[in-house]
Automatic annotation (TrEMBL):
Pfam families: PALP (PF00291), THR4_C (PF24857), Thr_synth_N (PF14821). Residues 2-79 form the Threonine synthase N-terminal domain. The modification N6-(pyridoxal phosphate)lysine is found at residue 113. It comes from Neisseria perflava. This is Threonine synthase. Residues 104-336 form the Tryptophan synthase beta chain-like PALP domain. Its EC number is 4.2.3.1. Belongs to the threonine synthase family. The gene is thrC.
Amino acid sequence: MKYISTRGATARKQFSEVLLMGLAPDGGLMLPEQYPQIDRATLDQWRTLSYPELAFEVMSLFATDIPADDLRDIINRTYTEEVFGTKAITPVRTLSDGIKIQALSNGPTLAFKDMAMQFLGNAFEYVLNKEGKELNILGATSGDTGSAAEYALRGKKGVNVFMLSPEGKMSAFQRAQMFSLQDANIHNIAVEGMFDDCQDIVKAVQNDAEFKAKYHIGTVNSINWGRIVAQVVYYFAGYFNATSSNDEKVSFCVPSGNFGNVCAGHIARQMGLPIHRLIVATNENDVLDEFFKTGAYRPRNSEHTHVTSSPSMDISKASNFERFVFDLMDRDADEIKTLWAEVGSGKGFNLEFVLNKVHQQYGFVSGKSTHANRLATIKQVYEQDHELIDPHTADGVKVAREVREAGETIVCLETALAAKFEATIHEAVGEVSIPRPAALEGLENLPQRVRVVPNNATAVKDIIKEALA
Ligand SMILES: *Cc1c(COP(=O)(O)O)cnc(C)c1O
């Protein structure tokens, strides 16, 4: 299988090349030339597989330049009970109102990003070692992505991680999670500024071509194809878990920000998984809800992005959305260039004329929640089902309840655990005790490793030079 760019001006590439890429050189996103098609007989065969076996079957269709035994080994080391807490890896449970929840957040950082990032860590190490290369990941985080990347890459050969975060802006739990890592290849850098300042520094370093080449600087952001492909697997697993036969259909409800998670659902559906609808759930930052309701895509700048109680969805420019629109526009790269030029100029675009296709052919619908909705949903689930869901998952449950049709099976993706968002949980249900995995008891008391630097790119470059000297 070969990969192409949504902007049409990048030479076709192999999986292991795409794995280490961010944006394509032409500014687009990489996608397979076509999606593999899964027939009924294959689906029947896959139904009884374990999670790692299923992951191998799905991913081997995409990672065609990695020898089968090597890929199987990477996957078997990634999806273990030890790392993800259960043998099922992503078990599905049912709330008393019939809504199903697929647990994607039992990895080391208690958010669904571990599902893909843990695979990426092992896959990076494999490809880099094979090619005798090294890679130094430079990233900026306001919480979830940075910790997932650090836990995936800690101790890996050939990789260093330099992760910038805004000093004093993350929660005590998030700080403890990242800064308590003692691995020599993990470098936490707290910048005296805001998250946007951290991102600006990353861009400034990336734009210094000489520095970038000399120090092998790379990224792991949400547009990485390896992350998407690893996420496709759990849609298959969730479907098999939520049904008893392949005659049934299931809808997935996905708390969304950058459109990475639900993009994987779209791909699973295009491969032939019997998905009825893909329900995109947003918070107050509702650019995607607006698109799926009206056809207008109007990204906003950071001044118009709300800070909410589901912070990992506080995104107003959905970086993976271009992958879906490419399919929607029948893979016309020129059309994508035109549309994203409009995005670049701050105008956005309107695809109202194909809204019917978005709904009928691609099965997308959407909804949104407010802070009050999420608190009420957390409280209801706590009272009815005696369990605590996190504010992102609550957004999904709220929207799923609202759009559910008679007889429809909806699986809500659980994108984080309540333990990560204690303040909001307490606001919703009072001072209850919030379960935390045993391994994370006392996390905040562990010694921490972090360098605090002034808000400028030179200070960050100096740390990188010193660490790699
Ligand atoms: C990243 C994240 C999301 C949003 O996922 P996207 O792939 O960006 O749409 C939702 N919930 C949580 C907890 C996250 O960490």
